[in-house]
Specification:
Number of helices: 11
Pfam families: DUF3626
Number of domains: 2
Shape: globular
Oligomer: single chain
Strand content: 15-25%
Protein name: DUF3626 domain-containing protein
InterPro entries: DUF3626
Helix content: 25-40%
Length: 264
């Protein structure tokens, strides 16, 4: 990856964020103390192809020169994004309302590509050779696709590698917050995602009318939030709820900039 990278060193003030839906992930962080890849968990918020011979396996073989082809699942890198816009929502909320913000030291063992690896990119970066920030900032992509993909190599331990767990405010006072308080890192809150069905109805073409209708069905008192969607996880197909989340993530940001609240 370093040999295929070019450009100046990365601004070490930028952070990698790992996104997820917290109902699934926070209990696992408490239990294991580490963030695991899709090859370990079998779940994820993108395509579910993390198995030998699957698309994710093939993309990694291509990017990393076969280094992980025969590696145990727990040794494979985990995926996130580089927060090039310094957003309180993190780099890539497409993959979940909550995120871990990693410490700057983790940048030294992180590789990057642009665009997403699903597109089989030709542009790569490492911390000391990084031209992708300027490329991504100059590109014109949908807000959910506007990120530099990051691959963190080696174990991501909460105690050693995480600055903060950043949650959506819809999880205040819930079991998710209670579990988060058991982690050895700060807990913070971004401004939030919240979408009324009136606004939802204005975007039937974004993921298709079927999913705007599903969003209306899932909404509580006319509102969608991450907690509302997460609470229905067992009632609908996961891939269907994922598309409802895309609608909320794309059109339901409470604020486009400004800091979230810190609550340690």
């Amino acid at each position: 990856m370093a040999a295929r990278s070019a450009g100046p060193p990365l601004d070490r003030a930028l952070r990698v964020t790992l996104h997820f839906h917290p109902e699934r992930v926070v209990p696992g962080l408490v239990e294991t103390g580490a963030y695991a890849s899709q090859f370990v968990t079998g779940t994820g918020n993108g395509g579910l192809t993390a198995f030998p011979g699957g698309d994710r396996w093939r993309w990694e073989s291509r990017m990393f020169g076969g280094a992980y082809d025969d590696a145990p699942a727990h040794e494979r890198p985990v995926y996130g994004g580089l927060d090039i816009r310094r957003s309180p929502y993190g780099a890539s909320p497409r993959f979940g309302s909550s995120h871990l913000r990693l410490r700057p030291e983790v940048l030294e063992r992180t590789t990057f590509c642009y665009p997403d690896s699903v597109e089989e990119p030709e542009l790569f970066g490492v911390a000391d050779r990084m031209s992708l920030v300027e490329v991504a900032l100059a590109d014109d992509r949908d807000a959910l696709d506007d990120y530099v993909e990051a691959h963190v190599h080696g174990r991501v331990a909460v105690a050693a590698d995480v600055e903060a767990l950043v949650l959506d405010p819809s999880y205040r006072g819930t079991p998710v917050e209670a579990a988060a308080r058991r982690l050895p890192c700060a807990v913070e809150w971004h401004p939030g995602f919240r979408l009324h069905v009136d606004e939802l109805r204005r975007h039937p073409d974004y993921r298709g009318p079927r999913f705007t209708a599903l969003g209306e069905e899932v909404a509580v008192e006319g509102w969608l939030t991450p907690e509302v969607i997460g609470s229905r996880a067992g009632d609908y197909e996961a891939q269907d709820l994922k598309r409802v989340w895309h609608l909320l993530a794309r059109f339901g940001r409470v604020a486009d900039d400004g800091p979230g609240g810190v609550d340690r």
